[in-house]
Amino acid sequence: MPARAARTPNALEQGQPPRQPRARNPRPGRPAAGPTQSVGPLTPHLYAPDAVRPLRAKEHFLQADTRVELHSHPWPQLTFSTRGVIRLSTREGSYIVPPSRALWVPADIPHSITLIEDAELRTVYLHAWIAPDWEKCEVLEISPLLRALMLALDTAPDGPDHTHHAADPHAAQRERWIAPLLVDELERATQIRIDVPLPADRHLRQLCETLLRNPADRATLAERAAAVGASERTVARRFREQLGMSWQQWRQQAVLAHALPLLARGMAVSQVASASGYTTDSAFCAMFKAATGKSPTAFQNKGRRNARGAGVGNYQFDSVDMVP
Questions:
Q1: Are residues 204 and 188 in the same domain?
Q2: Is residue 86 a contact partner of residue 115, using CB atoms and an 8 Å limit?
């Protein structure tokens, strides 16, 4: 028999940059994903916490699809929004953060932030000597007291010479009073698993981030694999090797993390299903119930919204684990 020709390794196996995917026409009735506007790290150096001011807070009003570029700083932070859903990404995973929750990010962890909706982004920086010694990101339920303490902090930046220029002359004293109570409330907060793990391989990560940016895109794994220069079989194998789950299990986890905040805001199930890439409500509901044990309507916020329009106020998801 003639010798069998050797298989040529694909781009993913060779470590080559992936080829650019062809532009896909949006499906009827579904708008294409909007362009992403990239901004810098929002001047964390002008809010550096120290022994005099152990807590520093800042606020920014940003539009949907804005991406705060990857950055890090030598102090931990608490990120939340008073309105609008955001997604914070690290090398290890991606976290969906609705207004009812905050995300703890340890010091020196590179992270970026993408706004899923128009949002009022809030950040609280903590001096290392008062901060909890948590070594990984944690999604926390925000109690009314914790929210009030965070919103009570002065948000004026330091001057160019790094001198303090608080709007409130008593800000430093108030921050020192608030700090121990805020940290105690932080340590009492319920930790919730709503993260989506990301692979270390840059080609697989690109594939994952493409879906996270537009969960409504119904491209198959074969189409997505081709866009990063790999075969469907190679991508499926790498998924199991790096994340311990299949592509379908990972996609389900990503869809759930995307859908839960939308349901909590009271969005119709049909709209959430469409935004999550499902052609029928029944298919979405079947997946949702199989994963959580409840129908999507059980997670809708039917209560009154607060005056600031946060939408998810004090609503709590019923301890949903994003299990594969």
A1: no
A2: yes
Tell me which residue has tokens 């309507």: 297
Asked if residue 71 belongs to a domain, the reply is yes
Buried b (16+ CB within 10 A) or exposed e, 19-39: eeeeeeeeeeeeeeeeeeeee
Tracing tokens 């929004």 back to the chain, one arrives at 81
How large is the angle between the packed helices 247-264 and 202-213, nearest 10 degrees? 30
Count of structural domains within the chain: 2
Report the C-alpha gap between 189 and 182 in whole angstroms.
Answer: 10
* pTM, 2 dp: 0.65
Residues 162 and 252 placed together within one structural domain of the fold: no
239 located within any domain: yes
Strand partners, 125: 56, 77
State both tokens at 137. Answer: 């990101």
In a shared domain, residues 228 and 149: no
Q: Is 124 helix (H, G, I), strand (E, B) or coil?
A: strand
Q: Is there a contact between 104 and 94 (Cβ–Cβ < 8 Å)?
A: no
Domain that holds residue 252: 199-299
Closest CA to 111 of 183, 240, 121, 17: 121
| CATH code of the domain containing 261 | 1.10.10.60
**Beta pairing partners, 141:** 101
* Digit-coded pLDDT (tens) for 54-79: 999 999 999 988 999 999 999 999 99
- What does the alpha-carbon distance between residue 186 and residue 304 come to, in Å, rounded to a whole number? 26
pLDDT beneath 50, residues of the chain: 17-34, 302-324
Q: Which residue, 129, 131, 127, is CA-closest to 172?
A: 127
